[in-house]
Amino acid sequence: MEQPLDSLLRSSFGFAPDQTWLAACLAHLGQNVTGFSSMGSQAQLPLVLEQLLAADLHSAGAGGMLPDVAQLHMQPLQGRFLLQVDEVVNISAGWKER
């Protein structure tokens, strides 16, 4: 059974959470945030997002791409998406200065 927060993360951010990570996150928040378990999903969502921002999306996410991503070359994406930048490289610098 899909959790309400799972649906919210998918519909609001296009993010498919790993169910093990989400369960651990909810357990952590339930133990550390007073009244968390009695909050509605909309009230829980910002707290889960806060945890997600500190997480490695590789382990927190179940993966997922837009269905037709191969055909989207140079096309703007509509909506919100989570993206984790792993490395930034100054491509204008010479190879030795990177």
Written account of the structure:
The protein is built from 4 helices and no strands. With 98 residues, it is an all-alpha fold. Helix 1 (4-13) crosses helix 3. The protein is extended, with a radius of gyration of 17 Å. The mean pLDDT is 86.
Features:
mainly alpha, 4 helices, 98 residues, 43% helix
Chain-wise SSE layout:
Layout: H1 4-13, H2 19-32, H3 41-54, H4 57-60
Order of helices and strands: HHHH
C-alpha Rg, in Å? 17 Å
The N- to C-terminal Cα distance equals 47 Å
Helix share, percent: 40-55%
Count the helices. How many? 4
Q: What class do helices, strands and sheet pairing give? A: mainly alpha
The biggest beta sheet, please? Answer: none
Portion in beta strands: under 5%
- Average pLDDT taken over every residue: 86
What overall form do the CA principal axes indicate?
extended
Residue ranges: pLDDT <50 for 5 or more in a row?
A: none
Describe this structure in a few short sentences.
The protein has about 100 residues and is mainly α. About 45% of the residues lie in helices and about 0% in strands. α1 crosses α3.
